[in-house]
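From the pipeline queue, job 12 of 40. The input is one protein chain; the requested action is below.

Action: predict structure.
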Amino acid sequence: MFKNNQLKIKTTYHTPHGNLDFSSPRVMGIINSTPDSFYSASRVTHEKAVIERVEAMILEGADIIDIGGSSTRPNSTEPDEAEELNRVLEMLKIIRPRFMHIPISIDTYRSNIAKAAWNEGADIINDISGGAFDNKLILQVSQMNIPYVLMHVKGNRQSMHQIHTYQNVIEEVFNYFEDKINILKNAGIQQIIIDPGFGFSKQLEDNYKLLGALNKFKEKLGYPIMVGVSRKRMIQHIIGTDADHALNGTTAVNVIALLHGASLLRVHDVKEAKEAIKISEFFLKLNNNSDTL
């Protein structure tokens, strides 16, 4: 399935408000300006709460702040473009002037919102659609010359959570990324981050199979891998809980992801993610250099 060639993995990314070095795993902290995000504690709307949450995430070690203005949970209602734009810009205008030295990611698939957010100081576009939901987005990201998170998804905005049957989920997702990366590179986009799209159009087992393939994806595609599993149903279903009580399960899955090559953890809980990174890096350092029997 995977070709024998191994690419040099891109690790240094440049943004208008700071560089990112993915030679060690990083953390992206989630903040939502939506009323219906699946994890209620990530929703903040009042200025004081926004500032306090961002400040806390930075103090806990967040390397990127990710702003979402449109919930992508199953059965969520898609806001119109004007509403999403208002939510995102309101958040940006609070955060950017106060926190000038941290990259800000915008979770959107709309080109007009990407452009407006960039004009207000955004640094990264985190697109769940791989450019499929707005055919102008790829060109817009190319013109802005900023990092782009490329996620795997099947279907459209309405059907992206419908379970898809894969003959070989690892092979199909890998082929998707190869095709999309060629499109992005032809458009002039070089700073790409790969997101396997955990929880999107995948059976429970598919998500965990993909976790085991992260190192291969990274080595064969040549780009850092973002893992966004925080408090998701793929965790809830196994341990029999809900989003509010899925932190311990999230940490367990993040450790699995880190041991298999994750470069960036997108999380609601920054402190716990940073601790998972420290322990995983210590383990890998010892065992990569340990004596063999």
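Job complete. The longest strand covers residues 26-32.
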